[in-house]
Amino acid sequence: AIQLTQSPSSLSASVGDRVTITCRASQGISNALAWYQQRPGKAPKLLIFDASSLESGVPSRFSGSGSGTDFALTISSLQPEDFATYFCQQFYIKPFTFGPGTQVDIK
Amino acid sequence: QVQLIQSGAEVKKPGASVKVSCKVSGYTLTALSMHWVRQAPGKGLEWMGGFDPEEGETVSAQKFQGRVTMTEDLSTDTAYMELRSLRSEDTAVYYCATRVRGGVFDPWGQGTLVTVSS
């Protein structure tokens, strides 16, 4: 199975900060990567698919980049509602796998 | 707009089975590829399996093979996930989610907490 690692595992940031989370795959997955946001007690919400395509309704401050094995999710200006945990997921081959998550907290 | 409504929390003893339901509204289940993902308390997300349109059948992660059954009642647009021989490590929130755009999951149900405890 393809392993996904994320860094950092957690970070503290302030409203207005630019935040970047990285996701690395154990083998090349082309652009078959998605990013999700999960708030406490809620289901994950799709933010980005195909590594860099913004899901409809998701604010433009979210962006994704990368291909192959290295990917990134960037939040250009952190807003109060963005404090959550973020997961990457590969859908290149089954079993579909998720990264361990990055928790974004308020500094 | 697709909405997925899951059944309520369950408490089971080790060795028992649990069956979680996921009702589709705003669409028909036949047009969807329903999958199941679980999340142990404070942990990450784990794909369990679901309907694979390329293979025309339900596939499951090797870890769950022989212990999980995913079914659909098309007359009520409801999907089910049954997990047998429960152990404490199966304590988790179980989500249904539709697979779209090749393999991403959107939307998700609200989740069903299954607690396995003696």
What does this structure look like?
The complex is a heterodimer of chains A (107) and B (118). By secondary structure, chain A is mainly β. In chain A, 0% of the residues lie in helices and 50% in strands. In chain A, strands 2, 4, 5, 6, 9, 10 and 11 form a seven-stranded mixed sheet that branches. Chain A has a four-stranded antiparallel sheet with strand order 1-3-8-7, with no helix packed on it. In chain A, strand 9 and strand 10 form a beta hairpin. The mean pLDDT of chain A is 97. With 118 residues, chain B is mainly beta. In chain B, 0% of the residues lie in helices and 54% in strands. Chain B has no helices and eleven strands. In chain B, strands 2, 4, 5, 6, 9, 10 and 11 form a seven-stranded mixed sheet that branches. In chain B, a hairpin with a 4-residue loop joins strand 7 and strand 8. Chains A and B meet through strand 5 and strand 10 of A and strand 5 and strand 10 of B.
| Major β-sheet profile of chain B | 7 strands, mixed
In round numbers, the mean pLDDT of chain B is 96
Distance between the termini of chain A: 36 Å
Name the chain pair with the biggest interface and residue counts per chain: A-B, 22 and 21 residues
Distance between the termini of chain B: 40 Å
Number of helices of chain A: 0
Q: What is Rg of chain A?
A: 13 Å
Number of strands of chain A: 11
Assign an overall shape of chain A: globular
